[in-house]
Protein 1
Amino acid sequence: MTQTDLLIIGAGPGGYRAAEYAAKQGLNVIIFEADHVGGTCLNVGCIPTKSFARNAEVLMTLKENETFGVNDLDYKFDFQKVIQRKDEVVSSLRAGIETLLSHPNITLVKGEAQFLDAHTVTAVGEEYTAPHIIIATGSVPKTLRLEKPAARPVLDSSDLLSIDHLPKSLCIIGAGVIGMEFASIFNAFGTQVTVVEFLKECLPVLDTDIAKRLRKSLEKQGVTFHMQSGVTAITEDGVVFTDKKGKAVIVAADEVLMAVGRAPRVFDHFTCAGVEYTERTGVVVNEHLQTTVPYIYAIGDVNGRQMLAHAAEMQAIHVVNQIVGKTDDIRLDIMPAAIFTQPEAACVGISEDRCKEQGIEYVCKKSFWRANGKALAMNEPEGMLKLIASPQGEILGCHAYGAHAADLIQEVSGLMCRHTTAEQLANIVHIHPTLSEILQSAAEQ
Ligand code: NAI
């Protein structure tokens, strides 16, 4: 039996960040990973998608060539080169994480780890124990329960990221974060994209007005949306759904992407340790991210709280701080998120819709990209920002879409952590000309 200070199951953003930080705090750590280090985010999620998204952005800029005075432009789009660049980005970052995990206090065990009991984990024939254990096993794509099994192969986001050819047409089931990012990317690549979504509007996390404007923008770019449409079957001919008028419709497509959410990756062997979980909501944790066994923690997608890489990383720091007896002021309740479509969208805190639904008193201050000097100079006039404040002025949230929306939202997240008011934000000097003035001008209203 190998004994150490901390065992970590899973080397995604939650697991590797916990290992790195714990090692710096002087703990000896053993981290288990059955696949590549980096988890979903690096290997089949955020990073490869953002690499594709950058190619999409370049293609969209090329389409504006005459606006920028570049005439008679002639080019060929090489999808194999797009794949190669994506693979290079992923492998270089993976090498970086492997270096990080080569710290003298960290041992990386390549293999699947399983609980034998509440103190023992086994992997590749060895047994390990530690006074603290972190579960960071991530999530898996959900699939739709249809009456009949799909009559043709259906891709998930990992499959679409490793596709070796550019499909002529693509039907995406689900207009959530994954569905919208892939719709934007593949539309820019020249694929005919159709999105089928059950709800009235896309991206339920976003303010409805902003989500609608973003959807309309993608529609203008060529994406077809069928909203309030529930998929009933996947046949050899395509995706069958009932549209909002109750009519059965079929969308023929070369490829079908299922993007109807992700589920926590839980295992039967968690019960050997007494760790409670459900398949749908993941490992049960309290506000300190302790499972039903207090010295076993669950961080990242597996606890089903906030399925975002940066949430997993900050949960990791928070848990290690508890283990080493440090206090911190990490605000896990202020969790910014971004959707890397063209244009980008992002949000933090409460939306105007939620304020209305929950009867929360609020003030909504809006501003627009078209009124910002830098946005016009960049030829990026599209975008809107809503800053939500309490009647006393404290900032409660901000939702936006437009070029670099994520960077603007990041500033709001920082200010919310310090209980800043809209008036205080308006009084902070912002560089001119920058997109950040969009935020300042909302605050000034
Ligand atoms: P999601 O939960 O964001 O969206 C799934 C969508 O599928 C929903 O809008 C839902 O109404 C729709 N849907 C469900 N059943 C349907 C049916 N029968 N027919 C049509 N539509 C149906 O899930 P998504 O997009 O798969 O993303 C999974 C997770 O990954 C999310 O938690 C997300 O936050 C995370 N993620 C984050 C990214 C980022 O931060 N930029 C990028 C990609 C994923």
Protein 2
Amino acid sequence: MENKKTKILIVGAEALPFAATGGLGDVLGSLPAALAREASDADIRVVMPLYAKVGAEYREKMTKVAEITVKLAWRNQYCGIYSLEKDGVIYYFLDNEYYFDRDALYGFFDDGERYAFFSRAVMDMIPAIDFYPDVLHANDWQSALTVVYNKLYYKYPGMKTIYTIHNIEYQGKYDKYILGDVFAIDNSDLSIVEYDGCINLTKGAIVCCDRLTTVSSRYADEIKDAFFAHGLENIIKANAEKLSGIVNGIDYEYYNPLKLDEKFSAGYRTFSGKAKNKAALQEMLGLPTDTDAPIVSMISRLASHKGFDLVKCVLEEALDNSDMQFVLLGTGEKEFEYYFCELAAKYPTRVRALFEFNKELSKKIYAGSDIFLMPSKSEPCGLAQMIACSYATVPIVRAVGGLYDSIKSYPAPDSNGFTFDNYNAHDFLFKIYEALELYGNTSEWDKLTLRAIKSDFTWSKSASKYMEIYSKI
Ligand code: GLC
């Protein structure tokens, strides 16, 4: 029987629980299932690379759908297509060990070639699987070329494309001389992907897509401005008619406080539970067990746009003027790792810094903390502030991008955290002091925490907005 459902193929470089390094992985791990739940008349599928990091527990469940040869300029490369079903969504994994059997997802000299291969393979897989998408939905620069290839070369009849910007800072910029050799784009098409003297894959997708989205409505406005657009403001403005902002949700099942191991599961929606979780965290990290002391935490990639220069300016002052303990989890720029190393050495009984990307550990830190910091310089959406709320941890954020859209500042009646407007270290510090002071006022603090827990960051509203866009185009 013919499948009459609207067919959506979501393309991206990472998805939880299979392989992830950041928020894109969260989104591609939870939006598809939300779409499948919301729209029973849609057939939602996702395609990503089969990285070495994808665990055996998932590989065991995969079946091989097909094997194709992908032509990328002069290269002819094997590509195995595997699939498995999860939460009503079929995930495809594209296998090529030369490109994806590596010890990390990104950061290699040939990332441009790896994702050109991936994008090409996505386009070539369409006739090889029994699924012809009505909409191809690409995410971030690693899959930007699918949109470009379709517009220029594949031109699949009736197939529309959506491109979502998760963070405009990462654009996929390369030297022009590899246009044909690595990206398999003809010289006559250079103007499509050229920007500012370079190949810019994000620019190519923005120009070629039918609809453009980003991950909050505030960020959709912000990227028309040079401060946020990392050079692409004019391209965004010229394509503003296609653009809309749809805020991300979080996966309440994946971040389910009740699913942590016993020691940490006590805090969910009970305030005595928070103290137990805190004690468990202190014990785990070798911090003095003092459940009165507020635990302030950060869980973040150590990237400068996350606001670490503000943290560097004022964190010691906050430590010196309070009894707070501080916990950091994340990896990234060495400058910040050194800083937190030194800080932990200076405050051995009050500061812990853990340099890893570790989802299970992150959940315990959310569960055991009282206050969560996110002073981002820019933040397309941000998920950590939402996850913190769901674990009864009050966020202090800079009112920017998705942080602006999701967190309302105390003492507003609908407040679920604290916000500050300017990218200024002392404005940030004063919010920390304000939060620490309110923390001492248990009844007010509990009310604020309760509002944070009750904030609705489910996917359902946003999923229907995506469905609306899918059906309109
Ligand atoms: C990127 C952005 C982050 C967003 C995520 C998912 O990681 O930096 O703000 O939440 O993508 O869209």
